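Researcher: Next sequence.
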Amino acid sequence: MSDLPTYVLERKFDAPRDLVWKTWTDPKLVARWYGPNVETIVHRMDVKVGGLWLVEMRFGNGGSGYQRVEYSEVKPGERLVWLHSSSDADWNVTSNPMMPDWPRILLTTVTFEEDGDQTSMRLTWVPHQASAAEIACFAAAIGGMDKGWAAGMELLAKLLAELQA
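Model: Next structure:
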């Protein structure tokens, strides 16, 4: 797996680990930061091995994008691992409608580590069972991935501050 391109996102939050974990596992909180600049609707979120997270992102133009997540590892407070895919409205894994060569499945790992009264969070994305074209598309896109994630992380930091106020 180490020869595959890997996107890494690391952030430190001024919040206890249990609270940061909750913002990644409580559907009401996830909807407030995941998918910035769109309306995020969590249709299902079963945070357990084999559980599904089904999310719809409604765009301002009236269209929607769908994502399907299947959890493969859940270590409360410490680690989430899932297979992340674009899907159709019936939650079937599909190609990304805006980027046909985008990997159909991304192996996602998120870890949470206490660091004094802060929490260090690390997310990795790696193409899973991907074709050469999908791997190349992912590798070419890594440089721009921080933009989308950064906006979400800003919303998450503000949410954490609000929850502690």
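Model: The mean pLDDT is 94. The chain has one domain: 7-164.
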